[in-house]
Automatic annotation (TrEMBL):
Native source species: Didymosphaeria variabile
UniProt entry keywords in alphabetical sequence: Oxidoreductase
Presence of the UniProt keyword Oxidoreductase in the record: yes
Protein name in the entry: NAD(P)-binding protein
InterPro entries with a match to the protein in the record: NAD(P)-bd_dom_sf, SDR_fam
Length: 243
């Protein structure tokens, strides 16, 4: 997705823990189009200073694309196998860090005279949880709810809040549980996902659902998503009367 954004003329400052990957990304595109910052977003206490530094170095930042994530399996029928520390690390990476980053960057985004954006990568299995991945499903469900809430809170500002819900995509996400050989062959190719997502981003869609989950057709899945969106809208209308 970062490559696509650059191809569309957007400067990307990529963030991650692996400096070699970030350096390769910048050298592929050149420093006029790409830059990078090394950070571990699960280190919540360091996020305010990270944001301050990022804004100082790149004052033209106009959108935050929160995309990092991790996914592990846990079986609570066998509690001794559940690594609770790792479970909580997953919640922190997939949810708590996104809240802290949103909080740290919002003053900058709100102060801009131009439209700005918060873009979040969620997952279909926030709406329909996958039983083998309770931390992932729950953390992304929390993220999904958070996104819906802040979108409503920011409705009278120039900050656009976008939620991308991907299907299974061929990335490194499943390496840990399945190994790279199997994990990177599951789902749709990244290029296909990026092309579809970019088209919807460009169209200005706020909730972008690509593909579906296993065992449900896209229509079956969208029936839930659309009904939920209508219910959220009704509740927002009601809550506005009390503000
Ligand atoms: N692939 C799928 O099937 C799928 C489906 C639905 C949703 N998603 C979501 O898509 C997003 C991207 O995942 P992906 O599939 O591209 O997985 P990936 O190939 O494993 O990429 C994860 C990215 O997140 C970064 N990251 C992870 N933990 C981080 C941390 N603590 N601090 C900073 N950066 C961190 C990684 O960089 P470093 O390791 O260098 O830090 C890496 O660039 C995630 O939110 C995931 O939940 C993926």
């Amino acid at each position: 997705m970062a490559d696509k954004l650059i191809a569309e003329g957007i400067h990307v400052t990529a963030v991650g823990r692996r400096k070699d990957r970030l350096d390769a990304f910048v050298s592929t595109h050149g420093s006029s189009k790409a830059s990078s910052l090394v950070a571990d977003i699960s280190d919540i206490s360091s996020i305010p200073a990270f944001a301050q530094n990022a804004i100082k170095q790149y004052p033209t930042i106009d959108a935050l694309f929160l995309n990092a994530g991790m996914q592990r399996n846990y079986n609570f029928a066998s509690p001794s196998t559940v690594k609770l520390l790792q479970f909580n690390e997953e919640i922190t990476t997939n949810f708590t860090s996104f809240v802290a980053l949103t909080h740290a960057f919002l003053p900058h985004l709100l102060a801009s005279p131009n439209p700005t954006g918060l873009i979040y990568t969620g997952t279909h299995i926030s709406l329909v949880p996958a039983s083998t991945m309770p931390a992932y499903s729950a953390s992304k469900a929390a993220l999904d709810a958070f996104i819906q809430c802040i979108r409503e809170q920011l409705r009278n500002t120039k900050v656009n809040v976008v939620h991308i819900s991907p299907p299974l995509v061929q990335t490194e996400l499943h390496d840990f549980e399945m190994g790279a050989e199997v994990g990177r062959k599951m789902g749709v190719p990244v290029e296909e996902f990026v092309a579809e997502t970019w088209a919807e981003l460009k169209e200005g869609k706020k909730d972008i659902y690509i593909g579906s989950i296993g065992a449900s057709t896209k229509d079956q899945f969208m029936e839930i998503a659309d009904k939920r969106a209508e219910a959220i809208d009704r509740l927002n209308q009601l809550l506005r009367k009390f503000q």
